[in-house]
Amino acid sequence: MSADQPDAPRTALAYWPDDPRFWHQGPAASINNLRLLLERFLGQVDAQRALYEYAVAHQIDLLRTPCVDPGLITFCEQILGNIIGHTAAKVMVSRLAQGDMIGLEELMQILEESSQLIAYSQQLESKSRALEAATEELRIANERLHELDRMKDDFISTVTHELRTPLTSIRSFTEILYDNPKLPELQRQEFLAIIIRESERLTRLINQVLDLSRLESEQMHWVLSPTDIVQVVQDAIIANQPLFQARAIALHLDAPATPLWLDSDSDRLQQVITNLLANAAKFSPAQTGQVWVQVRREGTDSARIVVKDNGPGIALAAQTHLFEKFQQVGGTLTNKPEGTGLGLAICRQIIKRLGGTIWVESDEGQGAAFHIRLSPP
Description:
The protein is an alpha+beta fold. Helix content is 58%, strand content 12%. The chain has three domains: 8-102, no CATH class; 140-216, Signal transduction histidine kinase, dimerisation/phosphotransfer (DHp) domain (Helix Hairpins), CATH 1.10.287; 226-374, Histidine kinase-like ATPase, C-terminal domain (Heat Shock Protein 90, 2-Layer Sandwich), CATH 3.30.565.10. The protein has eleven helices and nine strands. The strands form three sheets. A five-stranded mixed beta sheet has the order 4-6-7-9-8. The chain has a two-stranded antiparallel sheet with strand order 1-2. A two-stranded antiparallel sheet has the order 3-5. The radius of gyration is 42 Å and the shape is elongated.
């Protein structure tokens, strides 16, 4: 009968007497006990087949070997280790190798202790991973706090500068007018125009700070009503027309010829469009600047507004945090901050409250396109 036939284990091992023994470092151990241990976990057929395959592979007769093959101990530990864990297997086989028979109660105790050790090990690993994750979160949060602290410092510095500049101009030209009552009328009108312009600039800055504060504290007053989106955009363009004319920037409007009605707050929406138009005019090149404004319906209850310029564009790294507070985009030549860094943060808050979304699409050197999708809040 060949070795690979199903009943080969009986041929190779003949039978299992009750008390055949082999020797391992002095104490006697029963092969029968070792077989019984394997049968508990592998079953009778698989246990005998495993011993038979070992005997054939090493060309030995386990029933007549005068001394133990140390490899058999390792072999049995490996087989049991895949089922009950290597530590428990090593303990049980070692006990049998010393001639001690392991009872069922003791066997269950070993398995239970091994299971507890595995469970404790898994818990420690889980807690270790959780601790590592918490540490990483704290590190990121700490870096973010440092970044926010730096941004606030920059914001205070910028706002201080923005406040001081118009105040200095207003005071200087006012003193000139006061000290020179006979100043030529043309020059007087020029100085008064500067005072008015700087006063408006100061008012815009203060309004931005107050608007952001009201938005974040949810104290902003909203007036939601049916609103013609096309008309709101046209009003914003008219309000910003002097700015475009002063820099000789062409402005193009692509909008439906009929009203596009949505429930919205017309004043707040116009504030957003005005901010986007002012930014487009500021960053578009004088004389050759081009700004396109598009309004179109999307579905039955939504609209899209796009404000695009041919300015220097916005770097991808800057786009990620562009709509956060205190974020500023540098100028085209000086790379110094332009404005307070609050305008786009206010725009995002307003559009979010109106039930819409705002985002930017830009490639550096290819201009920037700001998109607004409006839906009923």
